[in-house]
Design a protein that fits this description.
The chain is built from 27 helices and 20 strands. It is an alpha+beta fold and 685 residues long.
Amino acid sequence: MLRNHLADETSPYLLQHADNPVEWYPWGEAALQRAKQENKPILLSIGYSACHWCHVMAHESFEDLRTAELMNELFVNIKVDREERPDLDKIYQVAQQMLTHGSGGWPLTMFLTPQQQPFFGGTYFPKEPRYGMPAFRDLLRRVAQYYREQGAEIATQNQQLQAALAAMVPPPGLGVVLDDSPLALARAALAKSFDAGLGGFTGAPKFPHSTSIERCMRQWYATSADTEPDLKALYMASLTLTRMAEGGLYDQLGGGFARYSVDGAWMIPHFEKMLYDNGQLLSEYARAHLATGEALFAKIAHETADWVLRDMRSPAGSFYSSLDADSEGHEGKFYVWSRDEVQSLLTAREYKALSARFGLDRSANFEGEWHLHVYASLDDIAAALQDPVQAVAADIESARSKLLKARNLRVWPARDEKILCSWNALMIKSLAIASRVLGRPDLAEAAGTAVDFLRHHLWRDGRLLATYKDGRAHLPAYLDDYALLADALLELLQTRWRSSDLDFARQLAEVLLDQFEDKDNGGFFFTAKDHEQLIHRSKTFADESVPSGNGFAASMLTRLGYLLGETRYLDAAERTLRAGWAAIQDYPQAHMSLVNALEDFLSALQILVIRGEASSAAHWASVLCRLYAPTRLIFAIPNDAQLPAALAAKRPGETTLAYLCTGMTCTAPLTNLEEVTRALKLRIP
């Protein structure tokens, strides 16, 4: 059988299917035209390389000759990597939920007319009847028959679906007066869903929900000067971060977090590790350490950053997308242990301490083996072993090092080595934050190198591309790419100043306004106005696995607008918040990025611009950023920096000085560090 049409693709997920007997096409003109010419329905399969159930369906059905022959006979088959084409995934996930009244997920299996209109779908379908689902081959025959015989019904259904998709676009926020009421609604929603015993904001399966953690931290900070600060909000964030760090969601040997926990106790994860999760969580642990001084949070931030630089960084300095859940055909095999193997690698003393710490002295917790999860504190272990805490900690660290070294010799999970712009932006931002908080210049250097990679390889003729692999950048970038990268640049500028990064952020903001903004109704579409025409142009405000592009755009434009004195950016941010107003009023917990952006817009946002010789200005900034302050930006700008007019007006002096701006109002120059701390009402530790 001839190879299918995926061999020249860059996506590792598509290449995994290049040798299938299914005649797969990538999404594109060739497949769509063939469907029209032959009047064949389209079987659209959307997944990603780290997806366990995607692999299961591939092995069961797409590698099976009989199933492939039926697919090839009845359908034009299109395979899509949802990480490269989130535009398609957004449309057809929603369509599947509308058509079936079920939940979405991956693999997504959709059946479309040649005009790309969906008429049936689901997620995973088994090869044989089970889980209350029909056999996939039987389903294929029935769907093809339905397409042949029920054209009028499909046409009517398509009209209804198009109307439903159009109705999802929020109405214009005409007459909306922005106020802080959604902040209180978000606080109430978080408290209602909070797991007071184990942390987190859902039951099983339990996801990290980084934006909810950030919202709790910001809520506490906003009340921290009150006579009764919201310590419950701080507790919700801190407990969640602690339980995740102690759980099996966190890789207790190598650092970094899996995508979610299958149970409510954070014990057993779905083992894939995604760049976007770790990009968000690294930020939250660093910020939480800054706010609380908790050593555990610093430890997790250090280890997660180390994992990213060690295991997820390309030789050119950009960051890979994910590590698979499976290795050697089994989910989690890379991460779990038998008692005998652990005992063979450690001294008796090390094993006693480690087994008590991570539960090897208890029953197995994953298919007869052990996935490491913190069960006992160092103090309790030290008391039980009658050893000093420092000695127990040293034994556990020695044991962890030995186990990690042995684990690295195993067959590794597959690594998806494509470079995604938006996911890299999340990691750039988190490395910039962690660099400041942890005092690690290497993290700022890594963030800057990644920015340079994206600008060199993904910025073409004044526009971004979404993905890069094997020397090839392609696919027009999405809202998330522009908004998250501009936001990351603003964060990195607070860690070390490069005027070229400010210029880049301004260019990204201008493309957002020109290509993505809904000029009539406010907010930003997910795709540019010159993007490929699909059955629907999405405009969403909710956080998903990646936080909301509209939320990040509103926050970024607010901050950049005040920094540069650019009212066009502030106006666009306000229009976005008005457009999303109904969503954040009705479902605040699903829109935490937008709620945080609203707080940025409504708060007395402080921007401190320090001018001076580079090392002196950086020293001032390092002193002043020692306190958690989510609505304060601090920029240390060297005297010789080339600046736009609004910033150039904040002129340097003979010695280091600073300008404190609240909104559009700035102070006279503050000429010593003590003056600045008084103006900020700070007590520097």
